[in-house]
Amino acid sequence: MDREAKNEKEENDREREKGVAAMVACYQGFDPAAYLQYNYMPPRADFDRQDSIVPWKLGCLHRAFTEGDVGGDVLVDVGSGPTLYQVLSGCEVFDTVFLTDFLEVNRQELRRWLQGEGYSGLDWTPYLQHVCKLEGRRPSAWTEKAARLRSVVSDILPIDVHLPRPLHPDSQLPTAGADCLVSCFCLESVSPDLASFTRALGHIRGLLRPGGHLLLIGALGESYYMGGPGVRIPVVPLDEAQVCASVRASGYTLVRLEVYTLPKGMMVGVDDVTGVFFVKARKP
Ligand SMILES: C[S@@+](CC[C@H](N)C(=O)[O-])C[C@H]1O[C@@H](n2cnc3c(N)ncnc32)[C@H](O)[C@@H]1O
Ligand SMILES: O=S(=O)(c1ccc2c(c1)CN[C@@H](CF)C2)N1CCSCC1
């Protein structure tokens, strides 16, 4: 590499590090309780309307986990935040589930739910009941599903998708890698730009075994969201073509893309999301 190219690469690396550091600073104000209220409680989180985003998301995950090509022992949820909906179908398929997040406040929120004692966060019962319905079980089986989830979560780990190795080496992941990754509203919400989003996809690919699957849910057209009162967090605005190109450029085979367009009434000022994508991809 000649001197000019070396200087340009060093400048690009410095810019990238500054962007990531700025994102870390934004997340210091993240408020799990507020985030759950903004996105996972009524009226935004509505199960009654068939065209609501929540049944759509849970349906995408249910189909992806149960259509026969996804399996193995280990499922990793990348950037869990304070939420659990993303593993309610997967917990029936995998015997070992790792939840992960960058922030201790989120890992603590998840621990509180898993321990069952003194949890004062979101009531996940409607989500558990809905997934039981998708599985053809009676809604009252939600207590069994909650117990199943508590039994298969092996650990709640720190993660940083901007690192080439996002998990600490002691994380007890199998040497060959996880059998499946799920990640929801994380990569585009923690990356300063599209190149960083694509790089992060490549970093988490290293957590997967060859032949393993990535199930990715994310925001389309979103440029910011409120991570708490007065906590405005920038988001990489993505369109469908960019999502597909980044998935392929980071080394996955795209199995399918599904898209949900938000009805106008869903725009309530906590973000400017216009749609949601679901990607099923495979590591060759
Ligand atoms: C918009 S929230 C998504 C939470 C949840 N997965 C959901 O579906 O709502 C983004 C999450 O990414 C986490 N995060 C922030 N920086 C990160 C990083 N560098 N690597 C991995 N996760 C990060 C945040 O702590 C937050 O929980
Ligand atoms: O499930 S959602 O599509 C959803 C759920 C979570 C998020 C967003 C959207 C958009 N901003 C993200 C910031 F990263 C977080 N949904 C938006 C409509 S109302 C119910 C929640």
TrEMBL record:
GO terms for biological process: methylation. Keywords: Methyltransferase, S-adenosyl-L-methionine, Transferase. SUPFAM superfamilies: S-adenosyl-L-methionine-dependent methyltransferases. PROSITE patterns: SAM_MT_NNMT_PNMT_TEMT (PS51681). It comes from Salmo trutta. One of its GO terms (cellular component) is cytosol. Pfam families: NNMT_PNMT_TEMT (PF01234). The lineage of its organism: Eukaryota, Metazoa, Chordata, Craniata, Vertebrata. InterPro entries: NNMT_TEMT_trans (IPR000940), SAM-dependent_MTases_sf (IPR029063). Belongs to the class I-like SAM-binding methyltransferase superfamily. NNMT/PNMT/TEMT family. One of its GO terms (molecular function) is phenylethanolamine N-methyltransferase activity. This is Phenylethanolamine N-methyltransferase.
